[in-house]
Specification:
105 residues; mainly alpha; two-stranded parallel ribbon; 6 helices; 62% helix
């Protein structure tokens, strides 16, 4: 399975978000990526405001998103697009949010 943080995957998601905005079409992510706390922060930072996931993941993602400002998420997403590898992106997100969100241990 490819990483949620693969730069090519994130560029593709960003292209879809941009195209949706240009055409006034809603874009949302459904599934495992939306259920991952760090990926959810990244998605919000990329401009998504709708995430769909299994019911069991909702409390954790709701808490995660509630502990991060949109500005922080946007800054993290901007920095992520400068990273070269999925591991670099994941480490960047962990450095910014792991302690506060109790993830990555």
């Amino acid at each position: 399975m490819a990483s949620f943080f693969d730069p090519a995957m994130l560029r593709l998601v960003r292209m879809v978000i941009t195209a949706g905005k240009k055409r006034s079409r809603p874009v949302l992510v459904c599934g495992a990526m939306a259920s991952d706390p760090l990926a959810a922060i990244l998605l919000v930072g990329m401009g998504l405001r709708e995430l769909s996931m299994e019911a069991a993941a909702i409390p954790e993602i709701r808490e995660t998103i509630g502990n991060v400002t949109v500005a922080e998420a946007e800054a993290a997403a901007e920095a992520a697009f400068s990273a070269e590898t999925a591991k670099d992106i994941e480490q960047l997100l962990l450095a910014r949010f792991a302690e506060r969100l109790d993830v990555g241990e």
